Amino acid sequence: MKRLFTISLLAFLAACSGKESESTEQKNILENLTFSVDTVSVDAGEDFFVIPYGLGRIGISQNKDILWFFEKDPLKLIQVNLNELRLFSKTEFHKEGPNGVGSYIMDFQISGDDGLAILANQSYAKFRKTGEITENLKIVPKDIDSELANDFSKLYQRAFYDFEENQIYTQPYKEGNAEKQLFIINPETKKVTTFPIPEMKSVSDFSRTYVAESDGNSMIYFFAAYDYIAKENGQLFISAAPMSGFYLMDPKTNSVKFIDIQHKTVPNKWNINLMEDYNNVTAFEEDQRKVYEQVNYMEINWDKTRELYLRFGKKTYLAENRADPSTYEVYLFAYDEEFNVVGETKVKGMKEPPTTYFWKDGKLWSYVNIEDELGFAVFTFDF
């Protein structure tokens, strides 16, 4: 009888242990992901949209009701009512003059009311949505290298203005193996706080340029590992295509930390070797294919409806004939508020990654051209 009791007790303990292990193992919420797609178009009324090359940079109002973007020629700020799918307003901006933006807009951020901060090729300023400059952000900071402080293109090439905190975040360009840094610039005091962000060196590590000379003419070839900076759910995210991990900054405390994300189904870092210099286009394109065929991690977005961070990844397979379209593998990753990986999957049936996209009411909106009209593919993901 004692032997029987011992065996029963061991079986009971083993069963309990198995249940505990099963309960602590994180479920993949995207394992059985499915999706459907609807296509919608925006009514321009008696006007029309001038978007021959897509939307470019966009902004979304805090309540996700209004889309902002610029038409380039002539330069106009466009606002679209996403709930009613109609043109809301068009406002002319100037490239030159006292309220001039510049010839090329690189990025912009919008405020909660009617303002926006525009980073252009030659200027950086805050504007009203009616087109008037309210504050110059092209600041020469104090207490940093004077050459860098006066080099606008190097200092502000990846700048992001935070309306809530009234500060600028930027990653200055530095040549060679110089340590990558995040600069936080106070526009009022012109003081700078710096943080090392060494993992962002992966961007330059996997970017290359090749200049081919032929009959006195030059052709420039270029590929890059992309990096992203965005404010989501009250926090600043600095991420890059070659790695799943990212830097997280709390704007309230100006503290920065690296979040080491570990996926189970795909590599978390690129493990490839590239040439430093090229003698011909063929060698350059071989390295370009290596980079494109890695999982390129995309920006991180907060989905308020699910209380999850969602992030796409993509692999791009270039066609042998440049005239033919590329093919893709698309991945989706989900993180909880503590940045635990709660889901990861290859999105079956999604033939290409989203372009110029945003999340609204739990759905993915991705720009599409519908017979030269502004449209969106609206994805409903079920998981």
From TrEMBL:
It holds the Pfam family DUF4221. InterPro entries: DUF4221. This is DUF4221 domain-containing protein. It comes from Algoriphagus iocasae.
